[in-house]
Amino acid sequence: MATATLTRVDELAAFKEELKRVDLKVDSDFQKALQSAQRLLEMSDREIGDALSVSRPSVNRWMNGANLPYNAMRKVVFDWIEKSLTSKMRTIAEIERSQRLSSSSTPVAPLSYVAKSRA
Amino acid sequence: MDSASDAFIFCQVPSSLANLAYAFHQSQSTNEHIWPRTEEQIRAYAENGELFAVRRRSTGEFVALCYSTLDGNNWEIGGLTTADSARGLHLGTFLVRFALAHTIAWNSPWDSGQDIIAHVHDENKKPRNLLSNVGFEFAKKVEIPGDKAPASMKRNPAGNVSGDELRFPQSAVKSLLTWFEKEYKDTLDDGKTPALFDILGGVGALIEALREAIPPSQP
Known about the structure:
The structure holds 2 protein chains of 2 kinds.
Chain A: H1 2-20, H2 27-41, H3 45-52, H4 56-64, H5 71-104, H6 111-118
Chain B: E1 8-12, H1 18-27, H2 39-48, E2 51-56, E3 62-71, E4 74-82, H3 91-107, E5 115-121, H4 126-134, E6 137-144, E7 161-168, H5 173-183, E8 195-198, H6 202-213
Helix pairs in contact in B: 1-2, 3-4, 3-6, 5-6
């Protein structure tokens, strides 16, 4: 379980680095980056739309290239993706930590309780 | 009510507030000049996030609403309604400017061969001035046969519903940009009541996007 979680964080971190090298002015690069972000962040068009304060159909049209935002807004989208990746990585790390904690403290009934029950 | 609590927020309505937005729409009396939208249409606009609203910052109450939706090859701005309690503040003009700028910035319509339009009934004078001030221009006359138009709408002597289709040309982006850049000072026209545009990246990003939208032939 821990290995799988670590891989996921690695994947998010790698994409975050990759994002810095994407030329957002290139339509296809912007589209690909957005599609990858959607997959990695596990968000629907509607959730992305609500997070960016745009309509769900607009997000869908960006994904298929029917409409695209101007560069100034693409920068806003990229900033949001970066923040969301950081937040997702933090959440996964938290889950991993709590899983480690819970697996290290196996719920075993205290001896005194066992003794009383037998009596 | 002090000025801080009287602030107005201009925003895109998230799908989570679809019910509230629809309730506001329902509470507004429709008139004979407006093409009434069905409950399904308004719900769909709201759930899709195609609605723009003005809300009181202090209470979250909706005081104005309009939509911007892509219908075929046209982005249509319509359904503008303002609560009676907020009339006279020119909220509608601010809201249409916001919806326009938002639509342009996030969708670059002209790059995809799309237009931005609005429809106004022949006898509906109020939105005519508003839309003209914002930069819309007459595009063509539109006449809907009486048997195809909603019963609530006023007919002309021939029994049809007639009005104008207005178009927001790309050449008008410059004046929209000038308004956001130079005239808008975080308040309504009274210079006191805070009017804040809620857009990711702030008004600065919106201004940059509008600058990109100005046609190359018009520096």
